[in-house]
Amino acid sequence: MHLEGLTEKLDTTAVWQQQLSPGEQQRLAFARVFLHAPEVVLLDEATSALDPANETRLYALLDEKLPDALVISIAHRDALEAFHSRSITLAR
């Protein structure tokens, strides 16, 4: 998850939105998903602050670690379609 620097801060109380970059916040959110292993995962622009390589890596991990989970994503990057069996495009 590339969050190794946070392990010594696990018991720290802080305003994390000010301490972590948007990309770190998104990677931390994915770590929570993997920890809780829900049956349904709703991702709304969950990787918008990440570069395409890290985005692909996290979605591949979702497939690997939670193969039976229902994953619903809202995203603007077409590359994420590869990780879903169905796609809906909304347009005006």
From TrEMBL:
GO terms for cellular component: plasma membrane. InterPro entries: ABC_transporter-like_ATP-bd, ABC_transporter_sub-D, P-loop_NTPase. Residues 15-48 form the ABC transporter domain. GO terms for molecular function: ATP binding; ATP hydrolysis activity. Keywords: Membrane, Transmembrane, Transmembrane helix, Transport. Gene3D superfamilies: P-loop containing nucleotide triphosphate hydrolases. The keyword Membrane applies. It comes from the Bacteria. Signal peptide: none annotated. This is ABC transporter domain-containing protein. It comes from Xanthomonas cannabis pv. phaseoli.
